Amino acid sequence: MKPFTLSYRNLSEALWTRVLENSAPMLRAHGAEFFAQMGSLEELRRKAQNNTGSIPVATQWMLFALAYFVAPEIVAEVGTFIGKSAIAIAKGMDAAGVNGEVHSCDVSNHFDLPKLAKTPVTTYPGSGSTQMFGEMVEDGYAGRVDVLHLDGRLMKEDLALLPQLAAPRAVIVLDDFEGVEKGVMNLMALRNTERFGRHLLVYPPERLLLERFGLPDVSTTALLVPGESLAFAPQ
Fold first, then answer.
1. Is the pLDDT of residue 91 over 90?
2. Would the CA dihedral through 59, 95, 173, 226 be positive or negative?
3. In 91-119, which positions are buried (b, 16+ CB within 10 angstroms) versus exposed (e)?
4. Between 20 and 30 A from 50 (CA), which of 13, 78, 126, 223?
5. Whole-model pTM above 0.90?
């Protein structure tokens, strides 16, 4: 008898549908305010030493929705820039009612973020991922990072620190998951580790799914999730 086989594409559609359905009432009630606050962060570009691209509108809400759904207590992010992803995640944690923290580093920029969420966002301006991860290990965060958001290229040294920091069911968010961009490169590096080699890949959501929830543009954000974090419900 053949097994029931599901592709990563099947898994991806089901997972993102569940996450976005869960946040749909929040989008209807608070979406306008959320996106206005995200837009206000564009003012920080004037302070940026390295003025690069930022996450699209759809990804802003996806990160909020993911944090709202999984309710992480500790999040570590590589690549702060003007703070849209860090603050979107923090606001999702607010909505989930968790008492948590977001830690975010950016080796290229040196400014702090405005306080737009109750969840504190600790920034490491001018610091790379290895430095932030090392400081977090020293400060007692080993085994406590529930979500890792990668909007920067991992260094070789990071691959020794991440297994120390990651919680048992840590979810990894891969930005720029297309072609040979950093998200794909980070996946390849993580796949070669014992700790993350068996995580399940969740592709970025299809545009038709985003349009179903009224989200414009596209997203190149993928996930790595541990198999034990998946559960089946009767309804």
1. yes
2. negative
3. bbbbbbebebbbbbbbbbbebebeebbeb
4. 223
5. yes
